[in-house]
From TrEMBL:
Protein name: DNA mismatch repair protein MutL
Function of the molecule: This protein is involved in the repair of mismatches in DNA. It is required for dam-dependent methyl-directed DNA mismatch repair. May act as a 'molecular matchmaker', a protein that promotes the formation of a stable complex between two or more DNA-binding proteins in an ATP-dependent manner without itself being part of a final effector complex.
Family affiliation: Belongs to the DNA mismatch repair MutL/HexB family.
Gene expressing this chain: mutL
Native source species: Paenibacillus spongiae
Domain DNA mismatch repair protein S5: 201-319
Amino acid sequence: EQLANQIAAGEVVERPSSVVKELVENAVDAGGSTIDITIEEGGLTLIRVVDNGSGIEDDDMKLAFFRHATSKLKSSKDLFRIASLGFRGEALPSIAAVAKVECISSTETSGLGKRLAIEGGTITAYEEANTPQGTDITVRDLFYNTPARLKYMKSIQTEIGHIADYVNRLALAHPGIAFTLKHNGSLLLRTLGSGERLQTFAAVYGSSAAKAMLPVEGEHPDYDLRGYVSKPELTRANRNGITVIVNGRYIRSFIVNQAILQAFHTLLPINRFPLAVLELGMHPSLLDVNVHPSKMEVRFSKEPELRQFIEESIGKVLGRQRH
Ligand code: ADP
Ligand code: MG
């Protein structure tokens, strides 16, 4: 069991940003309005995620740290219409197998809850705790018991770079949640959670970038598209400024990126890329998100139609710019 968890950990927990991703996605799923993330030393010594969401029921807390304890998948059919971000129940056991984890959670507004501590997969404490409604998870000394993995970590700057990139995109995907991200005591991101995507965009990229964005809106029998792309004057040297959200989930999609870039074709000099934050909605049966455990990759069932729809929707706003 412990070995199985360490093997699964290799898939789910590649580096500190994978831990942040899993914890923050759980926090989003929990439905609260604030998520505060504290990181020390690129996440290798400390990752803490505090949310004010539903909290974890007393009976479920220990269970959550064992394999396949997901509360989010009711039947195998659900795999094809996933509304919540997590659905595999592998994240917490995997993290607990390769770090020292403390989880404090309460489902009660009264603040009566539980504190669970786990080291390398073994429970070291389980007791009553007074804590506000929500969940507070701290992960210390990541990979302390898997030195081979620890050796693969890059510099602290590289690791916090991955974390910040991920949190920025998740904040863009959830403008209604107020996020903070702190690293070694300094504040890297604060979003207001107003629900206004352009305001979140300004928190991530700055207010002058936000002013140079054009609203995109597209409708199609199978899809809808909302968001912003930059005016062709505002370009970047790489495509990291493109954020794609599908049914509320931040994803990576070569197909969608290609469609966006195609819309900018002839407008941008070679090797220049737009900024974009686009939210695509579609019936869940039209996509398969179970491609990789990290759940960032998806497959679409009608790629050519989707591509054309995105390209045309963006093309319309850019076309208006030209006249
Ligand atoms: P999954 O997200 O795939 O269900 P995880 O291993 O990430 O699996 O989490 C296991 C379970 O623990 C979740 O299904 C959920 O019930 C509970 N859980 C984890 N984090 C939180 C949180 N921040 N708030 C409320 N419940 C949580
Ligand atoms: Mg999860």
